[in-house]
């Protein structure tokens, strides 16, 4: 998802920040960075989507870092089952109280399941981005694309560098 969000930049420029810590929500196997969590065992795109590859299925969602920058998610647009997604191409959108952002697919493949719970409860992306807030499940057409994504340590460093630049 392209996180070129003016609202986040404005908040940073005005030195606005969240006073609530989410550390009590983080699992023991995560790597913490400020208020964001990065889970081991997932793959991450520079556009802030995550992928959990399990056999012939890849589950995709946006990262805790992304949802934190977006703020309260109020609407999610997702593709239909049996549609195709392409690596680094838009497959949907997330609308928050701050902005609307495109969601880019970290891999190519066929959508085999869509998280319909997000239609009525888009806030699941905020409260549980790696579990209940997943977006789509894909049958990868090119599993080698997974190897081009970052691991948890690489993604944590990427986010730190990105945040420092703003």
What do these coordinates show?
- The chain is 22% helix and 31% strand.
- It has one domain: RNA polymerase II/Efflux pump adaptor protein, barrel-sandwich hybrid domain (OB fold (Dihydrolipoamide Acetyltransferase, E2P), Beta Barrel), CATH 2.40.50.100.
- It has a six-stranded antiparallel sheet.
- Strand 3 and strand 4 (49-54) form a beta hairpin.
- It is built from five helices and eleven strands.
- It is globular and about 35 Å long.
- It is found in: Mitochondrion.
Fraction in helix: 10-25%
The count of strands amounts to 11
Distance between the termini: 17 Å
Strand content: 25-35%
- Within CATH, the superfamily carries the name RNA polymerase II/Efflux pump adaptor protein, barrel-sandwich hybrid domain
> What CATH architecture do you see?
Beta Barrel
Q: How many distinct domains?
A: 1
Give the structural class.
alpha+beta
Protein name: Glycine cleavage system H protein
Keywords: Lipoyl, Mitochondrion, Transit peptide
InterPro entries: Biotin_lipoyl (IPR000089), GCV_H (IPR002930), GCV_H/Fam206 (IPR033753), GCV_H_sub (IPR017453), Single_hybrid_motif (IPR011053)
Pfam families: GCV_H (PF01597)
Which helices and strands occur, and which strands form pairs?
Elements: H1 6-13, E1 30-33, E2 36-39, E3 43-44, E4 49-54, E5 57-62, H2 64-70, E6 73-77, E7 84-85, E8 90-96, E9 100-104, E10 109-114, H3 117-120, H4 124-127, E11 136-140, H5 152-165
Antiparallel strand pairs: 1-2, 3-4, 4-5, 5-11, 6-8, 7-10, 8-9, 10-11
Cofactor: (R)-lipoate
Subunit structure: The glycine cleavage system is composed of four proteins: P, T, L and H.
Protein name: Glycine cleavage system H protein
């Amino acid at each position: 998802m392209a996180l070129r969000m003016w609202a986040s930049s404005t908040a940073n420029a005005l030195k606005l920040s969240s006073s609530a810590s989410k550390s009590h929500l983080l699992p023991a196997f995560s790597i913490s960075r400020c208020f964001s969590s990065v889970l081991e065992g997932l793959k991450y795109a520079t556009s802030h989507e995550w992928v959990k590859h399990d056999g012939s299925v890849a589950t995709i969602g946006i990262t805790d870092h992304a949802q934190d920058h977006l703020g309260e998610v109020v609407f999610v647009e997702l593709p239909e089952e049996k549609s195709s997604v392409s690596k680094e191409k838009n497959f949907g959108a997330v609308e928050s109280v701050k902005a609307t952002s495109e969601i880019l697919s970290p891999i190519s493949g066929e959508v085999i399941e869509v998280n319909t719970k997000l239609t009525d409860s888009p806030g699941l992306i905020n409260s549980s981005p790696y579990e209940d807030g997943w977006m789509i499940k894909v049958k990868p057409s090119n599993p080698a694309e997974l190897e081009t994504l970052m691991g948890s340590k690489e993604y944590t460093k990427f986010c730190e560098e990105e945040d420092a630049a703003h």
